[in-house]
Structures are given as C-alpha cells and as structure tokens.
Amino acid sequence: MDASPHPEIYSTDLSTYTSLTIHGLGSSDENPAEITLLRSESFPAPRSLEDVVSLPRDENWAPLSLPKDGAHLELELTDSISEGRIGLAYSVRVINDSANLNLPDLCIKLVKPEFGRTLAREAWFYEQLAREQGYEGVVTPRCFGFFTVPLKDCLDVEGRPVSHINPWENITIHPEPDPDWADKREDTLWWLPDDPPSYQEYYDDSDGWKSGSPWNKWRSSPSDPLICVLVLEKLGKFYICENIRPGGGKQEDHEELELDDMRDLVRDVTSTGVVHGDLRFRNVVRATRDVVCPRHERAHRWRLIDFDTATRIRITPENPEDFRYAMKSSVWTIGQPYFWGW
Ligand SMILES: Nc1ncnc2c1ncn2[C@@H]1O[C@H](COP(=O)(O)OP(=O)(O)O)[C@@H](O)[C@H]1O
Ligand SMILES: [Mg+2]
Predict the structure, then answer these.
(1) Taking 60 as the threshold, does the pLDDT of residue 244 lie above it?
(2) Which of 19, 170, 262, 274 is paired with 254 by a 20 to 30 Å CA distance?
(3) Is the CB of residue 283 below 6 angstroms from any atom belonging to ligand 1?
(4) Does residue 309 line the site of ligand 1, with CB under 6 A?
(5) Quick one: which ligand is closest to 87's CA?
(6) What ligand has the least distance to the C-alpha of 110?
C-alpha cells in the first residue's frame, strides 16, 4: 500500500479526500443539483468496560485530523442497495477523482436525517481500525471518509436552494427499532450505546474523548438537516443461507465453514478492542477481492459492515476481563438466534 500522509494510519483511503461532490442526490424545486460535502471529524466513543480500572490516556483514541488541501472526489448515485435502521446504501459511479487512485467499486452510506451523530461515530470506528495494519479493507470495506454539509448550504446550478434529497423522500423512519429500546420514547432512537443515563457505569469517558467532541451535543434539526455520508468500498450481498431453519436445526457443513470465517473476522476486529455490537447476517457482506489477512494468512470470504452501534474496550494487562468478555461474547453471537434476526 502507498505511504500515508497520516503517519497514524496505514492506508491512503482515509487521508486522501477533503471534499466530495455527489450528482443525483438532490434537487431544487426546479433543477437537479450537485451537492458538495466536506470532510468532517469523527465522533469518538468512551471506553467500554467490565473491569473498573483506570488507565492512562490513549492518544490513539483521537479522531483523525482532517486532511488539508486533499483531493476531490466526484460521484454519481446509481442504484439503491439497501435500507437499514439508520442508513441508505447506494451504489455510485466515479465521475472524477482528482487523486487518480485506483479506486475499487464504491458505494455511499447516507444516513436518515436524525442519525448524523451516529454516522460520525461509525466513521470513528473505521478510523480506529485503519490505525492498525491489516483490518480496514481486509475485515471491513475500505473507507474513504466521512463527509457532511448542511442542506441549507446546498444550491442548484441557478443558485436556488436544494429542497429535495432524493433518498430521503420515501424512507422508513424506524424500520427495526432495537427491542431493548422499544419501550423508550421515539426521540431516543438516535441514542448511541453509551448515551442512556442508566448505562453510564459501563463506560468511562474520563479522558473526555466523547464529551469533548462537537458531535456529543449535536442533535438533528428538522428545520436545518445535515447531510452525512460515508464513502465505502462496495461489497457483495449480505449473508443469507438457504439452510436457515427457524428454531435452529442442524446446519450444513458448508454453512459451518462460512460461519467459521465470520468468527475469524469477529476475532480479528475484537483483537483491536472494537466490539461490533450488532452481529447479524445483514451486517456481514461478501468480499469482492481477495486480500490476505495477516493474522489468518488467507483472504476472508466476508467483511463486517455497520459499526454504528459498536463500542471499544482498551486491551491492557491491567483489565483482562474487558478483553475476555468482549471476545467470548462476540464470537459466540455468530450463528445464534440474534444473528439470524429471530
Ligand atoms: N460497503 C457495502 N457494500 C455492499 N453493501 C453494503 C455496504 N454497506 C452497506 N451495504 C448494504 O446496505 C445495508 C444497510 O447498511 P448498514 O451499514 O447495515 O446500515 P444500517 O446501519 O442502517 O443498518 C446493508 O445491510 C447492506 O446490505
Ligand atoms: Mg445494518
């Protein structure tokens, strides 16, 4: 891989682009518009913990500094891929890439208006994984950055305000509320795992990474929506196995092989301290390139996506229980009823 201008990350993916223009995303009442977004800072999580042990500050927890005078990427929305709880995934075509990278197929994850803060958090997990060699692009899709723009700053070619964001026109606002939160009022659906006041004992933000972020107090505003986009490598279909039997019957050998590869992916991710938190078949998608995993010495057949409800532990000899618990519970989830969405 090329040397990164960011010494703290391993590939150029996250450090190349400063701005992004998307065609086909929105329009004024009269004309289509090209919408330009700027690179935005990610939103760090607090440390998640089982062991209540205080640890020295870890500077690697910081959001990545924004690339300065970076390249510009111009994309056009093509097809809708899928809608999730917070996001709408679209295939895109590259119209222009001022960095002239040898880009893979790309897609964007645009969030529904209330989930900008959530996508800023997901962006932080991609950054965290890019700080260690052999994760971003190996166990996850490659990630080319997190970009935002207030809708009120977007104009069409004649200077008229953009009034429609096409993917937002027909969205299901809350297709699958988290069962644990279903009894809560709707206005807490944007909460991150570390937001509920009753969960504060499981998190430590004494270093202030979360509370010091401008995203912490950000709230969506129907009168001033923020367009937030993550640019990702486009992968294949999510995992669905024909042998799924409600109630969990005996599974075929082939399926066990696939699930074993997913367990390896989960071991990889968790070994960085990132705990995915939403391991379901829809969040495991088919790899489209063979990239040898340095830990397994073979290419994984799958990639993990959707880190918006992930958490992060610190792995040190002082708090062994955090790692033990995270690894055991994450690997165990693969193939369990939650994984199949039962
Ligand atoms: N990089 C990608 N490549 C291919 N498909 C993707 C990609 N990212 C998302 N998708 C598709 O879009 C769906 C929703 O994306 P996801 O990140 O899971 O959003 P949400 O957080 O809303 O669940 C996924 O289940 C998957 O089908
Ligand atoms: Mg999802």
Answers:
(1) no
(2) 274
(3) yes
(4) no
(5) 1
(6) 1
